[in-house]
Write a structure and sequence with these properties.
Blueprint: H1 2-17, H2 20-67, H3 73-107, H4 113-190
Amino acid sequence: SLISKKVLQANDMKETFSGIGAEIKADVIAMNELSKAAIDLRNAERDINVELAERRAETAALKLIAEDVTKSTEVRLKAAEEAFRIENELLDKRVANAEEALRIQLENTEEDLNREAELRIALANIQEESAGKQLEINNKINTIRKEGLLILDQEKKAEELKLDEAKKKEEADALATEKEKERKQKEADDL
């Protein structure tokens, strides 16, 4: 009958729409969470960009100290190690932001795969850039350490040479004293 068909169609329609309110509510909550995460990420990126500029300036100053051969090995090494620590700290923060951007992107639909690829590339570029800086600073640390060992070796050799010369002088003085005694003894015997 026509009425029973209409009732069945109405029930089908009702089933189709039942739960749609909860689904829309869940989608809205998820979108709000993503929006908040995106805002938090933008704020964190702005903060890290400012910190990056300031800390890179600090790192550059430390690298100048590390390369200043008029400074002691200890001062140069300490400056290079501090620059290395700062670079690692910056890397951790930048990677965390890039990973968060990627996480937010992955929660979106597939329609923006290009943006995801850009974020993955940005993350890899950050890691590569920092690795280059870390390598440069680590090489400086190793150079300073080698220079310090060379200086210590040179100082040790100079000290050994001094001791050797002092020993030779002492032996020469002892020999001269002995010869003088023999000469005086001979003069006394001749009298």
